[in-house]
């Protein structure tokens, strides 16, 4: 089963404020973090600029995000998930895969299990949730997308391809706007078109690895199991920056980079982690995204070392930022060493100053007196911004 809360942030706001129920609600002002289905009916979408969203839906009610309320609601929903089955794989704060294949004797059919889960989430947590059921994770997720909002859909084993093949090619995992454009230029518009195209030709259009993946998914071949207890393979943070159509200066972007790296490295040191690879994620005005990464010579949790790498990635992406406009920036540090090991090196060539002690002292001061007790000069007087939750790896 793929269980996915509907318009999660907006649904929490409507649950907690009866005056918002049945009305168009937008969470977040500068960038839309979530929109109720009443607002989506007017074309409002997540990650859209706030100004554009208000133009599309002038009578929408804009509310500030309350991350603590969303975290609490998420915890309550996942408690229901774990009461349903021990095999739960979280995907984000508001969705998960659940394996219920072995529960027939004790819990009933998958549809009966899903119906009870939806009822419990509605009664105990007060939120609508959609569930898709299928033999594979991929198809279960597609089923939940088709069943939204507040629905339940079972794809029977003997109807899998009949259900899947008429759907648009964007339903295939990994197919974004750019890949869809490439496929459509070759007359590929539906999943059935992908299945008929053949793996070699697909590879020539979208690359070998992607071609193999799309060819398999178009036939509902997905051997992934529901995996529990997986520890994070990266530590990251991201932030919406400004509104579509607005241009940020290089200094403003750099301040965001400093703020995000400072948060990430503090978490790394708190959890005794080091990492080697810094990943930059950008989203632009046209909703396109790019990812860039760089692997450092050794694992570290040093703010200065990771910040230097992060700045280099942003500088390399500067032409894209200038051309497309920036609406979201995020970083993650991967290649994590869970024991916090850092490679020691001989002192030649000359090593940069060791800032480990400084980082540790700053962490202790913030822990005792608050995050604002010590900060970088460039961040003084600036809005630290709302950090958006990242999907777990």
TrEMBL record:
InterPro entries: DNA/RNA_pol_sf, DNA_pol_Y-fam_lit_finger_sf, DNA_pol_Y-fam_little_finger, DNA_polymerase-Y, DNApol_IV, PolY_HhH_motif, Rev_trsase/Diguanyl_cyclase, UmuC. The active site is at 95. It is an enzyme of class 2 (transferase). Keywords: Cytoplasm, DNA damage, DNA repair, DNA replication, DNA-binding, DNA-directed DNA polymerase, Magnesium, Metal-binding, Mutator protein, Nucleotidyltransferase, Transferase. It catalyses: DNA(n) + a 2'-deoxyribonucleoside 5'-triphosphate = DNA(n+1) + diphosphate. It comes from the Bacteria. SUPFAM superfamilies: DNA/RNA polymerases, Lesion bypass DNA polymerase (Y-family), little finger domain. The keyword Metal-binding applies. The keyword Lipid biosynthesis does not apply. Signal peptide: none annotated. Poorly processive, error-prone DNA polymerase involved in untargeted mutagenesis. Copies undamaged DNA at stalled replication forks, which arise in vivo from mismatched or misaligned primer ends. These misaligned primers can be extended by PolIV. Exhibits no 3'-5' exonuclease (proofreading) activity. May be involved in translesional synthesis, in conjunction with the beta clamp from PolIII. This is DNA polymerase IV. It comes from Mycolicibacterium arenosum. The lineage of its organism: Bacteria, Bacillati, Actinomycetota, Actinomycetes, Mycobacteriales. The gene is dinB.
């Amino acid at each position: 089963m793929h269980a996915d809360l509907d318009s999660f942030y907006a649904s929490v706001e409507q649950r907690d404020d009866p005056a918002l129920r049945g009305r168009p609600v937008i969470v977040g002002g500068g960038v839309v973090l979530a929109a109720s289905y009443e607002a989506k009916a007017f074309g409002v979408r997540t990650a859209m600029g706030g100004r554009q969203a208000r133009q599309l839906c002038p009578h929408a009610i804009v509310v500030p995000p309350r991350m603590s309320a969303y975290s609490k609601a998420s915890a309550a929903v996942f408690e229901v998930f774990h009461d349903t089955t021990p095999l739960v794989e979280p995907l984000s704060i508001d969705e998960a895969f659940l394996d219920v294949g072995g529960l027939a004797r004790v819990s009933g059919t998958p549809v009966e299990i899903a119906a009870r889960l939806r009822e419990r989430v509605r009664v105990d947590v007060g939120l609508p949730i959609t569930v898709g059921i299928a033999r594979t994770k991929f198809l279960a997720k597609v089923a939940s997308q088709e069943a939204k909002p507040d629905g339940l859909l079972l794809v029977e084993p003997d109807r899998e391809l009949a259900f899947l093949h008429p759907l648009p090619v964007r339903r295939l995992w990994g197919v974004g706007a750019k890949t869809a454009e490439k496929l459509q230029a070759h007359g590929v518009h539906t999943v059935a078109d992908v299945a008929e195209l053949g793996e070699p030709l697909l590879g020539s259009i979208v690359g070998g690895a992607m071609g193999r993946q799309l060819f398999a998914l178009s036939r509902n071949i997905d051997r992934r199991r529901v995996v529990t207890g997986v520890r994070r393979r990266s530590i990251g943070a991201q932030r919406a920056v400004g509104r579509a159509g607005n241009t940020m200066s290089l200094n403003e972007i750099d301040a965001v980079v400093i703020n995000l790296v400072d948060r990430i490295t503090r978490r790394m040191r708190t959890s005794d982690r080091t990492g080697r690879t810094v990943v930059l994620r950008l989203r632009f005005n046209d909703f396109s995204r790019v990812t860039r990464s760089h692997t450092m010579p050794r694992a570290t949790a040093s703010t200065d070392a990771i910040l230097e790498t992060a700045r280099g990635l942003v500088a390399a992406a500067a032409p894209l930022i200038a051309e497309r406009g920036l609406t979201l920036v995020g970083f993650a540090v991967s290649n994590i060493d869970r024991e916090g090991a850092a490679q020691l090196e001989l002192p030649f060539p000359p090593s940069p100053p060791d800032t480990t002690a400084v980082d540790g002292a700053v962490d202790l001061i913030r822990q005792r007196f608050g995050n604002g007790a010590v900060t970088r000069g460039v961040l003084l007087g600036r809005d630290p911004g709302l950090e958006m939750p990242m999907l777990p790896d």
